[in-house]
Design a protein that fits this description.
Distance between the termini: 95 Å
Strand order of the largest sheet: 1-2
Order of helices and strands: HEEHHHHH
Shape: rod-shaped
Radius of gyration: 28 Å
Number of strands: 2
Helix content: over 70%
Number of helices: 6
Largest sheet: 2 strands, antiparallel
């Protein structure tokens, strides 16, 4: 073999080797890009869920005081049965986003759902004044759950990037609601 053949053979071999290495790295980069895009989608889903829940807690922060007996109740009780049911639907919708949120927040939403289910029985077909009285009775339990939910949200926002945590810890059980 002469020098020209050796140079040509080594050029062809180095071209093939560099093409194989380049192909391998391109595949790895595409796979990494795919994972990163998927990760972004999951984080956006989580962020949407947390923002929706945060909006519901904002409604729970609105309170009023009855002029007659100076008792506090949440403003949603002053709009009648239909508005209360609308808020309860939003709590159920927030609870349906449980796949995207941490276990503690999901559990607190379930507690809210149970509480509102029981309150719903007390506001059904009642006058606005009667519904406000129910709101006064449940002011403290609702406020305590709201604070708990807000604390859960804060922790959830801090851990928003931790996708593995939410998928490894959640176990769902069948349960039934019992009126209190």
């Amino acid at each position: 073999m002469n020098i020209l053949e050796i140079v040509l053979a080594s050029s062809v071999i180095s071209g093939i080797v560099s093409a194989i290495i380049s192909y391998y790295f391109n595949l790895r980069i595409r796979k990494l890009d795919y994972k990163n895009e998927y990760y972004k989608i999951l984080i956006n889903k989580r962020l949407e869920a947390y923002q929706f829940i945060e909006n519901q807690t904002a409604v729970l922060r609105n309170v009023t005081i009855d002029d007659i007996d100076n008792k506090t109740f949440h403003l949603m009780f002053s709009y009648g049965e239909d508005k209360f049911i609308d808020f309860q639907k939003n709590i159920m919708l927030a609870n349906s986003k449980g796949l995207w949120i941490d276990k503690e927040t999901s559990n607190t939403l379930t507690e809210f759902n149970d509480l509102f289910y029981n309150i719903n029985e007390k506001v059904f077909k009642k006058s606005r004044e009667e519904i406000e009285e129910v709101g006064k009775l449940y002011y403290k339990p609702i406020s305590a759950l709201r604070v708990k939910l807000e604390n859960n949200l804060r922790k959830g926002f801090i851990d928003l990037h931790n996708i593995e945590k939410i998928f490894e810890t959640q176990e769902y059980k069948t349960r039934s609601l019992k009126p209190k």
